[in-house]
């Protein structure tokens, strides 16, 4: 479980980054017997530097909780993958940055939308921190006991911080990227006249010809309405 997310080299509140063979067997037994009632522990807050000089907040689970999240992910991902838009590339099996880069290059060089194209590039403001919990739960297909477990995961909160009971799925968790993709699925097709390519919270819309200011405003309004229903909004400095 320590190999499946960006917080793999960082310990949660259990202080562990790896388990002994004996501990692994004990954890496997605990999960097998108690997965229906698994109590997710608090997360550990960690900050990592970003390229722009700011810091990204991570919420690091314990190893046991990472394993539990992985079980939920294995149950949820096949159904979710069957519904995901083809132009979504981030945190998906068999897809990566090189795939979206290739698709973007081919789209920009294609004559299908004419020689002149208008590009709308945007990012979502604190996407993982602000996703509405009710949206996540409404859009996940899981048995009742597993959905209750998912609710405990997203409401676990960070040790020493006042928990948000309504929004957020912390970066650093195994299942968080999948939940973000589930919440954002469909944003790729809300502007029929544009080709949208999405990598997690980063999106590019490509239009034929030049968009005037009223058209640009309408497009942004449509996107923000979609995001607003999920507790999200675009980041002005990256739009």
From TrEMBL:
Source superkingdom: Bacteria
Protein name: Reverse transcriptase
Pfam families according to UniProt: RVT_1, RVT_N
UniProtKB keywords: Nucleotidyltransferase, RNA-directed DNA polymerase, Transferase
Species whose genome carries this gene: Microseira wollei NIES-4236
Domain Reverse transcriptase: 29-239
GO MF, one annotated term: RNA-directed DNA polymerase activity
Lineage: Bacteria, Bacillati, Cyanobacteriota, Cyanophyceae, Oscillatoriophycideae
UniProt cross-references to InterPro entries, sorted A to Z: DNA/RNA_pol_sf, GrpII_Intron_Splice-Mob/Def, RT_dom, RVT_N
């Amino acid at each position: 479980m320590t190999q499946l997310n960006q917080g793999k080299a960082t310990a949660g509140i259990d202080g562990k980054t790896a388990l002994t063979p004996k501990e692994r067997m004990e954890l496997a037994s605990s999960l097998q017997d108690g997965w229906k009632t698994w109590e997710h522990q608090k997360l550990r807050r960690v900050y990592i530097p970003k390229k722009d000089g700011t810091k990204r907040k991570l919420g690091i689970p314990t190893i046991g909780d990472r394993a539990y999240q992985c079980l939920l992910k294995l149950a949820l991902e096949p159904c979710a993958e069957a519904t995901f838009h083809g132009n979504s590339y981030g945190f998906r099996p068999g897809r990566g940055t090189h795939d979206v880069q290739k698709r973007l290059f081919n789209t920009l060089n294609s004559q299908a939308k004419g020689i002149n194209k208008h590009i709308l590039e945007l990012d979502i403001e604190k996407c993982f921190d602000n996703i509405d919990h009710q949206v996540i739960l409404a859009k996940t297909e899981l048995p009742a006991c597993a959905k209750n477990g998912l609710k405990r995961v997203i409401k676990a909160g960070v040790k020493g911080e006042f928990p948000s009971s309504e929004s957020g799925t912390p970066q650093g968790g195994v299942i968080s990227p999948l939940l973000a993709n589930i919440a954002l699925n469909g944003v790729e097709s809300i502007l029929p006249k544009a080709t949208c390519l999405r990598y997690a919270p980063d999106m590019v819309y490509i239009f034929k010809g030049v968009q005037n200011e009223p058209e640009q405003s309408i497009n942004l309004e449509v996107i923000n309405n979609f995001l607003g229903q999920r507790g999200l909004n675009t980041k002005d400095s990256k739009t």
